[in-house]
Protein 1
Amino acid sequence: MKIFTGISLIALFVIVSSSAIIQRPGSLRINPADSLQAVRDQYIKQVSEAIKGKEQMAVDSVFKNLKVFGGFPAGNLLLAMNSWSRALGVTCEHCHTPSHWEDDSNPEKNIAREMSKMTSNITNEYLRKIPGMKNTKALINCTSCHNGKLKPALRIEN
Ligand code: HEC
Ligand code: HEC
């Protein structure tokens, strides 16, 4: 499980940096609050209550079926889940049966795992190896492609 710790640290950086964007006043144009947030907030509250007191423990010691995440505090998993959901424009139910969060029977959940690995690989193996880039910390996240939609755009929409 630990082989993905490096990936997860980058993922966490992305999460933390994107939540800073969400919370910055006047940033609505960049990351508009979407109408599905109220639904997600209910589930986030439900999981937060279930892990109460364990927020600072290692994420993979608190949750049951993690194959990608590791190496950050359990409380931050919910930030990651909310960022992924926002990036795709969905609620938690797109990948999960609520209350059975560890269940893997929905194929979208495994696709998300693979997308997460792909995203880290693009950043580490391609983007950061392009010589002469002004931003040496450049990165790709789910939003870079999905931009609030399940299907990334293939052409500019007018
Ligand atoms: C695009 C798919 C997707 C969406 C949307 C999503 N999740 Fe997840 N979730 C995952 C994946 C993938 C994992 C497993 C990560 C891993 O293997 O390390 C996961 C793991 C979890 C876990 C840990 C379960 C366990 O015990 O192993 C919880 C809790 C969870 N998600 C809650 C949520 C909540 C709450 C939301 C909505 C705010 C949400 N998820 C939205 C894909 C998603
Ligand atoms: C480099 C671009 C790119 C990045 C980055 C990316 N995706 Fe995707 N994703 C795609 C494409 C392209 C598709 C296929 C869309 C289609 O044509 O159906 C897709 C499809 C998906 C689907 C399946 C949608 C469906 O209709 O069933 C999920 C779930 C998903 N992505 C989750 C994620 C998550 C979570 C992340 C971030 C961890 C992410 N993606 C990052 C390009 C990307």
Note: Residues 2-146 form one domain.
Protein 2
Amino acid sequence: MSATTTTGGRHFLQIPGPTNVPDRVLRAMAAPTIDHRGPEFAALGLEVLEAVKPVFGTTQPVVFYPASGTGAWEAALTNTLSPGDEVLAFETGHFATLWREMAERLGLRVTFVPGDWRHGADPDAARERLAADTGHAIKAVMVVHNETSTGVTSRVAEVRRALDDAGHPALLLVDTISSLGSIEYRHDEWGVDVTVAGSQKGLMLPPGLSFNAVSEKALQASKTAGLPRSFFDWQPILAANERGFWPYTPATNLLYGLREALTMMAEEGLPQVYARHTRHAEATRAAVRGWGLEVLALDEREFSGSLTAIWMPDGGADAVRGVILREYDMSLGAGLGKLADKVFRIGHLGHFNDLTLVGTLGGVQMGLTRAGVQVDPQGIQAALERLQQP
Ligand SMILES: Cc1ncc(COP(=O)(O)O)c(C=O)c1O
């Protein structure tokens, strides 16, 4: 163990999810598990089913699953599409690639618009592809709102406009797993048909819950969608939800946690939650540039509020993360897929404040230096200056 290693203090979990769970949420979950078919549970179920809607920007139903986000990805596809259907997706990074692979395994035909993993879904490419599809073979457009592998946020409202400009009836399916509760999102206003989300990032909960917010058009599509589904079928869940129940045993204690997390978000105010994330992302980028390093995202309209990926094209990112974990007890996100060892990712989402950011960036700066990466030590000062402003 090195002289600087400390075992005191809390571990810094600064991966872009799972995120740090607030003590209030942990305490809320540390309650006796109750009868999931009894009246106390029904009240909890009805409360959280309603309270979650503003975070999605919807008044329409939100389906909950005791599953990780991957389950909600599968639910979005199997409830709306049929074998052999064509879907349009965008190569924004590792998660877009995984979702595409799932779609193909389920028997869908995916047109995957190529990308460089430094930009979001291109609304112009969407407009072009949809306008060319005069026979309306494309049944759905899949977009990852915040690509967690790159720190790039796609402009979903503009993709919606592309669908409208082309007069195309395809469903719009959006993954908000690392944006919901961190980056402003409007399921209804943006005409999204299925929004996919998970518990373990902006919602400040442990992993284990995931969601589909569902439009009326998606509900109609589910009546004729031919992909096989059982556990993920919306219809029996929505029917049981009317009285606050689920057709199977729900994740009771995670729902206690969700109730508390939603209360915390309502107390802070959603606009304030989003502004906090934007501000911390700006301060992080100021530090990265101050160090003389590069942010992976290239288009400032697409900078992520929930994480920042730092570009180390010559490799060495894993060594930096290793030093930071060993010396400073902080976990940072690894480069995924083709970005392995070429980026490391700082999560600045969820239960997070100015001093958490200063500690995080301090650890990154010390770790970079210790790993032998030449950085300007004034980098963190640039972040502090940003944090002096509202
Ligand atoms: C954007 C995005 N989509 C999908 C997933 C997969 O979710 P899970 O790991 O919860 O199954 C993740 C996980 O990090 C993600 O960040």
Note: The pocket of pyridoxal-5'-phosphate is lined by residues 17, 68-70, 95, 144, 148, 175, 177-178, 198, 207 (CB under 6 Å).
